[in-house]
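**Backbone geometry record:**
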Amino acid sequence: MHQVQAVLAKCVITISIMLVIPEQATALERLFVFVQQADSPGNDYSRINNSTFEKCELSCERDIECNAFTYNQIRGECFLKKAPAQWTTIRPGAITGIRLSPIQLSPEDE
């Protein structure tokens, strides 16, 4: 009986740790800056219908070609972009995410 309890306790601890780590990693790895009520016209290469903002952001994050996206909250449409436009257009219900460049550390900072 004690062996079963020890195994169960180990499983619960392992599962708890696994659930905490992804949340912390996601908070620390923000890859985008967001512009509310704005569209970045052009440079679209993919459109995802029936999306949520979170799915749109994740789709861009996982795609190395994606450097920006616009999510239309009213229509639930996601537009992945190869590059953001040099300007944005005011569009109610739209959110544009622009991928941030990674910070490169010098050898002294590591």
